[in-house]
Design goal:
Length: 206
């Protein structure tokens, strides 16, 4: 039978055991802590990022590269199809080429800044007007007029939604050349949206 005296003895024994196993001894037996490893990695990474660059810049790179890649994929599907409309094909080609050039620039910055972890974190996000995999799969199997119409609808939405994130970079980014690139993106994509509206015969819906 346990008595209050026995319970007190058990509590004192547990306290003595915990005191004997100090944090310093735990670190010595377990090796470098995860926190220390992460802090070291962050310190190493931050040394490669320019002093004027901030979290908005890093977030912008991480989110915009996959967003651009999806637009490139959508344009490639249109260009490989039987859609004959020369104006739509020209628009798709310009979107494809322009966003590939921009991705090359952004990926080069990401490599210089050594932000691979940040880029990987955002690479799987479906946000800012991006098309989910199920819709993308359906889109990829369309042909003719259906594909032409769907391309204008999806790409217009794709542009419209991402402009908001791009404006955040213009307003709050710290790295001037990236802010300049974001401003160029807004101008180009706004003009492309107007083209889509003319080709669609109104404002496309999704």
């Amino acid at each position: 039978m346990r008595t209050p005296l026995v319970d007190a003895a058990l509590i004192l024994a547990a306290a003595a055991f915990l005191t004997a196993c100090s944090p310093a001894e735990e670190r010595a037996t377990a090796g470098p802590s995860t926190t220390a490893t992460v802090e070291a990695a962050m310190s190493e990474r931050s040394a490669d990022i320019p002093a004027e660059a901030n979290d908005t810049d890093i977030h912008f790179l991480g989110m915009m590269v996959p967003h651009h890649q999806q637009a490139i994929d959508m344009a490639d599907i249109l260009l490989a199809s039987d859609v004959a409309d020369p104006e739509v094909r020209d628009l798709a080609q310009r979107i494809r080429d322009g966003q590939q050039r921009e991705n090359n620039r952004m990926n080069a910055l990401a490599d210089q800044w050594r932000i691979d972890d940040d880029m990987e974190l955002h690479s799987h996000h479906i946000a800012n007007g991006m098309v989910n995999p199920a819709v993308m799969d359906t889109y990829s199997r369309l042909q003719g007029e259906e594909l032409r119409t769907r391309f204008l609808e999806l790409m217009h939405h794709h542009h419209e939604e991402v402009i908001r994130m791009t404006q955040d970079e213009v307003d709050n980014g710290g790295y001037q050349s990236l802010r300049d690139l974001a401003n160029e993106m807004i101008e180009v994509q706004t003009a492309e949206m107007r083209e889509m509206e003319e080709l669609y015969g109104g404002v496309p819906g999704v």
